[in-house]
Structure formats: structure tokens, C-alpha cells
Amino acid sequence: MRMLKAGPLPFIKKNNSAGFMLYMMVIVLIGLITVGAIYLGTNIFLLALISVASALFFELFYSFVVNEKLKIENASSVVTALMFVCLCGAKTPLYVPIIAMFFAIVVVKMMFGGYANNIVNPAGASAIIVSAIFGAGSSAWQTAIGSGYASEVGVRLESGNYVGFNPLELLLKRVSAPVGAVLLVAVLVGFVLLVIFGVVKIRVPIMAIGFYVLTAFCLTGFDIVAVPPFLMNNIVIFVACFMLVDFTTSPNCLLGDIIYSLIFGVLCGVFVKMNLMGDLSAVYALVIANLFTPLLDRVIYPKYFGKGVQDEQ
Amino acid sequence: MALASCRGVYIKGCRKALKNADILELRNSEEFCIALKPGMGSESEPIVSVGQNVKTGSVLAKPVDKTSAFIYSPVSGNISKIEDKLNSLGQHSKIITIVPSAKDVYIKFKALEKQTRVSLFGRLVESGSIDTFGKNYPTYSKYINRGVANPQTLIINLYDSDGYVCSNSAIARNYAREVAGGAVLFSKLLDFKKVVFVGVDQLGVISNAIKEHLLGFDGDIQKFTFVHGSKKYPFDEEHLLAYKLTKTMVKIDDDIASKGMIVENAQACYNFYNAVYNNTPTTATVYTISGDNFVENGLAWVKNGLNANVIFDQFGIKDKEKFASFAIGGAMSGVAQIKLETNLPISKNAIVAFGEKYDDHEIDCINCGRCSAVCPTRLEPMALDTYALEHDYGRGKKYGAEACINCGVCSYVCPSKRNLAQRISDMKDKIKRGETL
Fold first, then answer.
1. pLDDT tens per residue, range B321-341
2. Which of A130, A194, B402, B413 is least enclosed, having the fewest CB within 10 Å?
3. Closest C-alpha among A84, A96, A105, A97 to residue A242
4. Quick check: A4 and B249 CB within 8 A?
5. Could you report the predicted ipTM of this complex, rounded to two decimals?
6. Best residue in B11, B292, B363 for a mutation probing chain A (most A CBs within 10 Å)
7. Which of B340, B411, B412 sits opposite A4 (nearest CB)?
8. Cα of B116 to nearest chain A Cα, Å
């Protein structure tokens, strides 16, 4: 008599996997980097290659040092590396991704328990660390990972000069943004693809951008003319659509998502309006919002079926 | 596999294939192996011996307590063995093996003289009907286990439960008279004030057919209503159904009978009708045969203890070497089988066979929250999974592990392929046994 293997129930599973989701993210990020390379030059590909190689090396190195099982097949380090490249500028020196990946993979990710255990987004955190090393706001930093967006659009938004922004141009024309956010329409197409393939939650970016625009609208003295330039801010949309939706660093329930989006939106609105953090305003807001996630997941717990109902005797 | 999901599982392809399928009569197998413990309840006590000849409808075993049932012979034949071994649900049980004879001779109950509550309840106990819904106790047990306080609502479940199980709507479609009559008998049993038929597929057709027959059984047609249920699996679970229909929340571990509600299904109505009007005991149930490793999907009457080989012959197996999973019960919460030569109990109503192996390589949780988004009882399966892995049953209890209904939806949607349902179910058992730290 032939014996069968008795697997655990359910005997069917949904045709999705974490690996597929991360590989989809990799494909979309490569698409965005390619768009960036078209406008900023092919050295961006070299930057991406060095970033990915450094990320994989540091993951391998850490796993070897602490004798942990390597989980390289899930491509999460590659996503981090590509995400960081998307935040880089055209003139970013080639050694910057190596330093950034050390912090992203070893410090932010692996030291907090590795894959899916990091508290903040590794790419975002490493961008902030690198910017701190090179001196945030200085011209040295701007060439290191900045792109000039803050000096072009950011300064105009800070000074209240909202006239002359054409929404269609903002959507379809290249701006001086980081690699991944050069073309707004490309960012949006990438996000739509991720939504279609079920990789990201649509509600978080929509709420976050909504809160961000609302905050900016309030800070501009309810000036309706200010809404399009704030709304169509390439970097904010890139961060909201690709980094804010990271499963590991975002809450699990609806209420948690609302509060998380609110924190990001308000901080981002303030940072962008005041031009406090330059190109990395949205990234700072993201990392601060990420820090609230463990707390939100702990405090907000849905009321399960039957909770509070008296025991039957 | 044709799957679509909308907050849970809803298998389109399977239901489409089975929508208008006929319920087939199957040939007898060479042997019938009848388990005296067909579900969660106690084992019935055998009253026959090896070598004895039995007729169709002869009593094989009698109940020993209120969680066991009368068990009847599904065929005429000779008892060849009575032995202790595992039943197809993996439980230790006495199994009676009957070798069927060429000719079936039937034994029937004595006709009821009057339909009083006492006589009807006696007939329900006598019928040997096993609940194919809920916990597989005898159907009568829900009326006496905790008692029905202030009977209010009788819910008749016509759901196609568990993605791949279509037997309820098939019975209601094919045997509308029996289902209507059975529902009226159940309502007379405790004089329920309201009877709600709840279903999803083909409810329009089914309700018209049932309404036609209801008048013939009960003049008070006003108390019978038909409600369209949610398509999302597993909203046919009795606590969730009761909550949806009456807004009364009962803890998952408590009986909804304590709040005056009872859930019966189309099969139970059919069985009760036959026991009262045709004086025949329950010896068979409708099975849904589905899954991609069957050549054809369909519905069939399965006699208690029938060998699954008969089903394989009738519906065809695509590839015997490529069995990824074979289970008795639905695709979501059935019982996995380790061999093809198994015997089918009447406490289940489906058999599934899949040749396509899904990706079951378990990796770390990515904290995506999909499990909590689909959980019908609003649990946080990933948090409970962590508590289970840490053996922190106290926190598991605090965060509602006991409210898990073992539907398996969390494991179904998990992109990290984690066995959430199994670990939470295991933790629930340990909490029940008092293993909270």
C-alpha cells in the first residue's frame, strides 16, 4: 500500500509568497533606477551594482561572523540596496553605498534580529546616517547623496513661491530629484504595479500623502495654490509609495496604519514646508514614524470575537 | 487551482463545476469499515458480533452517553471483523467491518403515531444522524448537552461551507421537500419562534423550492425567513452565523444553544425528515468530491464506511503518483490521509485530492498583517504564533487564542507559508488543558 505524505492544513494555499513580493519590488526598483539612469547617466547602474554587492557581502559577512543561517534567497538585502540607490543623487561617489550598506545591513538590520525584525527602514536609516557623516545640509552632503531637489523645489516651497508650478509638468517632466524619484509618473506606475501584484497596501500611501498635503495646506495658511506643488513632490511620493509600505516597519491593523500615516504626514508636511532636512525630509519623517510601529502594534489590539462576553455557567 | 480571495477564501472554479451537478449513487465497496467513533464524541457500544448477518438499517452500536450515537448498518451483509484501530480521522475507535451481500434487505423504524415533542426527540436520537457541521457530535447532542435556554432562533445552514464543499446547497436543491419538512420538525422540537435559512449559492432557486413545500408542513409560514449570507469563508461557522443573524455574540467555546439558538444544516434536515416520515435511519451522507487530482468533480451519496476506492473509480484519479494532499473534509480544515485506501465516515461531507503541491517552505514572518486582516474572529495570528512558539500560553489566552475557530484562513493567505493555524490550534488545546504559564 502506498503511503502519502500528510501535510498540514489548509491543503490549498494562496498563490503568493514573500519571495515573490520582494522580487517584484526588486523589478520595480530596477525599473525606477533605469529611468533615473536615462536622465542622470549610466554611472547610476555602477552605483546600483556596488550597492547590491556591498549589501550581499555585509549580509554574508555578518552571517559568517555570528554563525547564523544565511537568508540571502529572499532578496531583502537587494531591495535595501536598490532602495538606497533610489535615494542617491547623480554625483554620489561610488564609496558612499559601501558605507551606507554597512550601516543598513549590519547595524540597522542584522543587529536587530535580521530579516523582518528591523525596527526602522534600513535604506532610509542608512541614508540619514550617511547624510549625518557628510554633514546634513552642507554642499558636501548634497553631492554625496543629495540631488538638488531641496535647493530647487524645496527652497521655493519654503519661501512660499508657489506660482509657476504646472501639475502636468510636475507629473511628466524630470525634476532634480534623487535617482528613484526623477520622474513622478514612473514612481506612480511602479506603485500601481506593486498594488496590482498585491505587494503593498494601498491605504498607507494614500492616507500618508493625504495627511502630508493637509499639514502643508495648514502651514501655508490654507493657500489652495500651494496644494499641487506639495502634492506632487517626487521624493515624498517615492518614500510614501515604496518605503512607508514596508511590512516589517509598518503597523498591522487599520487604526495603527491611520496613526502611522498621520505621524508621517504631519512630520513630512512640517519638514518639507520648513525645508529642515533638505532632500531627506520625507526620509526623516519615515524613520520617525517607523519608530512608533512597535508601540502601535503593541497598544492597538483588535477586540476579538467574544472578548468581554461573560462565561456561560 | 482556480482561487479567488476577498477577505478569506472563496473558490470560484470548484463551485461553478459543482453548481448543477447531480448527486450520484455509488456502487458498494467490497468491505464497509464503520467506525464507532465517527467524530469528536464518545465511541458507541457495539451490539453485534463477528459472523453475524445484518440488514440495511440494523443497529450496529448504541450510544453510551449524550455525545455518542446509534450506528446502523449501511448495507446488508456479514460482519467479518470488529477491531480496535485508527479511524480515518486519526482517532482510536472500534471498527466494524461488513462484507455486503448481493441483496439489500431493509429494516425500518416503527412509524410514529403522533408528532409530539417527546416522540420527535426520541426519533432524532434514534435516527443516528451525525452532525456534519460543527464538532461531529450526534445531531441530538446540541439539544441536551447544555440545554437550550429560551429557544428563539433555529438557523438552517444551506452554506457551501469550506471553499470546496457544496453538499448543503446540493441537498437543498435536490431535496427541497425533505429539507423543508426537516426544518419544520426541528422547529417543532423546541417550538422555535423564528427559523432562518441562510445560504449563498442559488439561494433564490432553493428558497422558492423550499417555500413551496413549507406550507404543506406548517401553516405558520411567517416565522420562516431566507437570508443571503456572506460569501467569505468561514462565515458559516455557527457562532459567526448566529452573530450575523441575531447580533448575539457567544464565546467560541460556549454553545450558542445557551442563547436560545441552534444551527442545523440541510443534511440534518434531510436525515430527520427521513427518520420521521420514511422511518429510515441515517446510514449515508452527501459528499462533495473535488480537487485538481480528480478527473471529474462531483457529488455522491456515500454510505457509512464506504472505501474511498469506489470514489476514485467513479470520478477518476489523474495521477496516483502525484498526490500532494488527500483529505477527508474540506480543503481548508479537513483531515489529511496517509493512505488512499481509507473509509469514509458520515460525520464528514467532502473528500479533496490535490496533485499540485503548493509552496510550503516556511520562512520568517514578514509582519505583513494579512493573517489579521482575514481572521474572521479578529485575532492577530502572527502574535499568537509567536506566543505559541515561545510556549507563552498565558499571553496566548490573554490575546484570545481560545477564540480561534481553526478555519485555516491565516495559513492560507500567509506569504511566508507559516503554519499559523496548526500552532494556534495546538496552543488552544494546551490552554484548555490548563497549561498556561
1. 777 778 898 888 888 888 888
2. B402
3. A84
4. no
5. 0.84
6. B363
7. B340
8. 30
By the 8 A CB rule, do B248 and B242 touch?
yes
Q: Do A6 and B403 touch (CB under 8 A)?
A: no
Shortest CB distance from B354 goes to which of A11, A305, A306?
A: A11
Q: A303 contacts in B (CB within 8 Å)?
A: 378
**What is the amino acid identity at position B237?**
E
Identify all chain A residues contacting B412, using CB atoms and an 8 Å cutoff: 10, 12-14
What CATH number is attached to the domain comprising B273?
3.40.50.11540
Model pTM score: 0.86
Non-local CB neighbours of B255 within 8 Å, separated by 6+ positions: A312, B142, B145, B146
Which of chain A's residues have a Cβ under 8 Å away from the Cβ of B333? 9-10
Q: Judge whether A97 lies within some domain.
A: yes
Q: Give residue-wise pLDDT tens across range B103-127.
A: 889 999 999 988 899 999 999 999 9
Three-state secondary structure call for residue A232: coil
Residue A311, in any domain of the structure: no
Domain termination residue (choose one: B358, B379, B399): B358
Closest CA relative to residue B419, chosen from B375, B390, B388, B379: B388
Q: How many CB pairs under 8 A join A and B?
A: 170
Which of B221, B252, B278 lies at the terminal end of a domain, its last residue? Answer: B278
Nearest to A307 among B243, B360, B400 (CB): B400
CA-to-CA separations, A83 to A76, A104, A109, A241, B420, in angstroms, rounded: 10, 11, 14, 12, 31
Closest Cα in chain A to B149: A312
B289 and B263 belong to one structural domain: no
Task: Locate all alpha helices (DSSP H) within B12-110, ordered by sequence.
Answer: 12-18
